[in-house]
Design a protein that fits this description.
two-stranded antiparallel sheet
Length: about 290
């Protein structure tokens, strides 16, 4: 009897080991497929594979990691609602992944042009995360968002949450605060004089081109009119209207570009090239790699 029991126990152990090996092999196959799909820019398909891995996973930390990766790939596919759902499932599976989840939620909200929601998640990370790259990233990104929202004091306070506050970033905030944006209305009104709207925003090459093209059109209309060549007047007149209206629109658009460049210079000084990305080769352990 004992011999039979021992044999049954050995068979059960061998069966359990075989199932574990098969499950691990299946997981490795799924991970390889998910990584390859991501490398092929098939992010939605990669996300589906990570979801399948999460559903099949019994260990809560690994399940959360797979759901987070599914959310990350959905974000890369610009499927924002599905990203939110995956992050909620990751949070339910393993609340200890709070920092990684909030960082991705912040990026998702920022992509939706919802800076206040993004700032909420980033502030939570900047305040709660231990000293390290995640805290540094959140503080820098939060400072840039506050600056975009016109909150200069908030931007400075956010940057000081970083383990090593950037003096360059603080100086950029001060410089941006001292400067002034260009007015779209003023740019458009100055554009009534060909080239002047561009010059207002510092685009002197565009200003010169606009002035020359409008002057040529006026000269052409006068020349054709003197010769009573009305077809030429019509063609050149149409071109002249196009260039003249372009001067007005260009005055508005150049003011927009000036303001955007001014803000980008400041945020670049604050953030640098700050970004994060997961390390899929370490899965099912979720690890983020930060660069600045």
């Amino acid at each position: 009897m004992r011999t039979i029991e021992r044999r049954i126990g050995s068979w059960l152990a061998a069966g359990a080991l075989a199932l574990a090996v098969a499950a691990r092999a299946e997981r490795e196959t799924g991970l390889t497929l998910a990584r390859e799909l991501a490398e092929m820019k098939l992010h939605a398909e990669s996300a589906l594979e990570y979801r399948r891995l999460a559903i099949a996973e019994e260990a809560a930390p690994a399940r959360a990691a797979f759901y987070w990766m599914a959310g990350y790939e959905y974000a890369r596919a610009e499927r924002r609602e599905q990203t939110d759902r995956m992050l909620t499932r990751a949070e339910d599976a393993d609340p200890a992944r709070d920092i990684e989840i909030k960082l991705l939620r912040a990026e998702n909200e920022r992509a939706r042009f919802r800076p206040r929601e993004a700032a909420f998640y980033l502030e939570s990370v900047a305040l709660a995360a231990p000293v390290g790259p995640a805290k540094e990233f959140a503080a820098r990104r939060l400072a840039a968002l506050r600056l975009e929202m016109g909150d200069f004091e908030g931007a400075r306070a956010a940057l000081r949450l970083a383990p090593e506050p950037s003096e360059t970033g603080l100086a950029a905030i001060a410089e941006y605060e001292r400067g002034r944006d260009k007015s779209y209305i003023v740019g458009g009104l100055l554009g009534l004089v060909p080239g002047l709207g561009y010059a207002y925003s510092g685009e002197y090459a565009n200003a010169l081109r606009s002035l020359i093209m409008n002057a040529l059109c006026i000269w052409g209309i006068v020349e054709f009119a003197d010769r009573e060549q009305w077809a030429g007047v019509a063609v050149v007149g149409f071109a002249g209207i196009t260039f003249y209206s372009g001067s007005i629109y260009g005055g508005v658009d150049s003011a927009f570009r000036y303001n955007r460049r001014r803000l980008q210079r400041a945020t670049l000084a604050i953030e640098g090239q700050a970004r994060f990305e997961p390390e899929p080769e370490l899965l099912p352990t979720l690890s983020l790699r930060f660069s600045f």
